[in-house]
Automatic annotation (TrEMBL):
The keyword GTP-binding does not apply. The keyword Nucleotide-binding applies. Belongs to the ABC transporter superfamily. It comes from Actinocrispum wychmicini. PANTHER family: ABC TRANSPORTER ATP-BINDING PROTEIN (PTHR42711), ABC TRANSPORTER ATP-BINDING PROTEIN NATA (PTHR42711:SF5). It is a peripheral membrane protein. Keywords: Antibiotic resistance, ATP-binding, Nucleotide-binding, Transport. This is ABC-2 type transport system ATP-binding protein. One of its GO terms (molecular function) is ATP binding. Residues 1-222 form the ABC transporter domain. One of its GO terms (biological process) is response to antibiotic. GO terms for cellular component: plasma membrane.
Amino acid sequence: MRYGSHIAVDQVGFHVERGEVVGLLGPNGAGKTSTLSAIEGLITPAHGTITVDGADVARQPIEANARLGVHLQASSFQAELSIEQIVRLYAGLYGVRLSHGQITDRMRDIGLAGELGKPFKKLSGGQQQRLSLFIAVIHQPSLLLLDEPTAGLDPQSRRQLWQRVDQFRADGSGIVLTTHSMEEVQAVCDRIVIIDHGRVLATGTPADLIAAHRDDRRVRDLAHGEVTLDDVFIALTGAQTRD
């Protein structure tokens, strides 16, 4: 991925299996957003290939998008539309037929059955996130992108979100997750990919990466007691604060 002469993503490669959560980790400016934008088809890479469940994002964008779900940190649904109107709109875009009763039942599952007529702008942050996640998977995508999904959520809302993610994984969806919380990564990710300056620095399970780097002097200098994934991440990407 190039922006003028700047190479934002340089030969980043990874795969996601069905039923697997892969954490895409990196400090600010590492290339995560550009990578996700390329997967979504929003930006065309200068080189490389991206496929979603066999569909090439560049050559088969309609097929790829039909297999893809995206849940962003900030939702941007039409503020004046009600929950039911938003659900009907996006269900229609994906060719999913839902009756009023079915919508009510599904909203009950995420605690929004009593809010069907409320405009989106009147929902709390946690309610907006729950609706956004529902819309992202309304068409049962093969791959779900979660970009900082728990930012700003209280502990109860975070717990509910991860319960939903566990259900998607059990149903066979592959998931790519970006987050700055190493605790969340260790709790939910099967594998992680650490990138910085557009390149892959390390990949593996959280436990494997800790084991592989626990004797690294940079890691030992950071650790206070047992080596954590946070220690490994900072040792690999540097302790300097990024904007």
